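Notes from the pairing session

We agreed to fold both candidates in a single pass and log them together. This is the raw record for the first candidate, unedited. Please don't reformat it; downstream parsing expects exactly this layout.

Candidate A
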Amino acid sequence: MKVGLLFGSFNPIHMGHLILGNYMAYNTDLSAVWYVVSPQNPFKKSSSLLHEFDRLHLVSLAIDKNDRLGVSDVEFRMPRPSYTIDTLTYLQDKYAGYEFVLIVGEDNLPFFPKWKNYERILEYFEVYVYPRSGTPPYTLKDHPKIKTIPAPMLDISATLIRDCVRQHKSITYMVPEEVEGYIKQKKFWI
């Protein structure tokens, strides 16, 4: 089984994440896409980050009806901050017979050489890259393990959603209905 891994804080998960995951699961050679909820991104600091279990629950609500999409809390039990190579290695050991593929936005590639053991990632794992506007030039474009996937782009961000919630503006259609309901129920970012 070939599984794409889409890492993120998902604070909150939104339609851009869901469209991307669904596109990758149904329009590539992947059997499934797992959203790997990261408790702490080593490159980001956020005071508005929901508790990891709340973010995990929001992802579960969002993908509940799609059997090709899954969610993983694997990084909750790993040393922090979590590094992609460590998670990939752990999952590869745990799920013998699975082939894991890293899914990243094109805007990550100029900085990919700063990732911990990025050479090992490229040695052992394929990387599926989706387009992002405004990406500066990068050297890894022709690497044999990097495959560009022409996934649809949706310019929406979790920051925009959090700002809308704080300002009591609508987030309808930016997140699934179940996610919006849970955000309102729990009064996140208010």
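Candidate B (folded immediately after A)
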Amino acid sequence: MSIRRRWGTADVPDRTGTTAVVTGASSGIGLHLAEELARRGAHVVLAVRDPERGAAAADRVRAGVPAAALTVQELDLADLASVRAGAKELRARFPRIDLLVNNAGVMWTDRARTPDGHELQFATNHLGHFALTGLLLDTLRAVPGARVVTISSYLHRLGRIDFRDLDAERRYSRYRAYNQSKLANLMFALELHRRLTESGSGLASLAAHPGLAATGLGRDFPAPVRRFGPVFAPLFLQPAAMGMLPGLRAATDAGARSGEFYGPLGLTQTRGAPGLVRPGRAARDAEVRRRLWDESERLTGVRPLF
């Protein structure tokens, strides 16, 4: 009896001649994704809020992959004007985009509003990526085999889309806002898959989550968590390089299909090798997904055309 080997970075096919845009690529999962894609020959665009941090990240990738083809693109997902400007520049510079990885995010931030007046976590994690994908959709659809991969979270299972208070104007909980934003990420990926399929498009929309991974998101944690987190983190968190694997598999595995969701296969899906996982119950509500899409169009002013 043969034992099937676990999927890993060695399984990533050659990506020479392709262009991949990775948001939040200056650290954590996004940086690891960028490095692996560059290692396989892709031209990787590091779409980041801070160009200086993006340039430093590019240097780190080149240290491991000297021949890496990299571009740093300024893109602040919390600011819809920046998203529009960044998307315009990407379309002008890269008439071919084979892969968009919606990875960037913030977690458990203090209450804050974006320049557009939206709650920070919902705006950065969901609305910015919704707008970016919509603005790049025609470019992506023109490329055979292109994919959009949206990174959700294990905590999407605790999320609920509160249409009465999407922007947390009535009350704010850093945890509730984060869970809602990551549920929105997964719902967006699944609804995008449905709309692409119905339109007859070959563009694929997939989702992934890293389990519980040690990433730079901890910079926004409350002070007590930052203080004691390093002591307990090794007991619960897997390295960012492992947390990156579900997203990398969704982005590159030839056997991956539109509408699929990848995550760690270990107990409770918090760590382990990457594979197919089932979305939480709330994410499977098709009516809520359609309504969230409509609200996202209204809040961003971006209406993706199919």
